[in-house]
Amino acid sequence: MTNLKCSVYSCMHHKGDHCCKPNIKVEGPRAMSSGETECASYAAKGHQNTVGTSTPNPQLEIVCSANECVYNKESKCHANNVSINTMGGQAGCSTFTKRN
Prior knowledge:
mainly beta; two-stranded antiparallel ribbon; 10 strands
């Protein structure tokens, strides 16, 4: 499990700098920088909460399609700490680090 910090306050799953979902998905199969990633689990506040919980979850599984990220192993994030932030008007992974 990854320690996730989220600062996307406009997301309905955000609470106390964490996510209330049991897992999230980060997309960016062609991403070469963090700004080209996207939190596919983002849902704007005002949408119906289908997660069933409002308890912050600081450690969760992250499914990831950012193939060029050093932390992506078999479509799962293996970074110890991940930050999801608003980048260019969307929620993205600022932990993304391009493979050499």
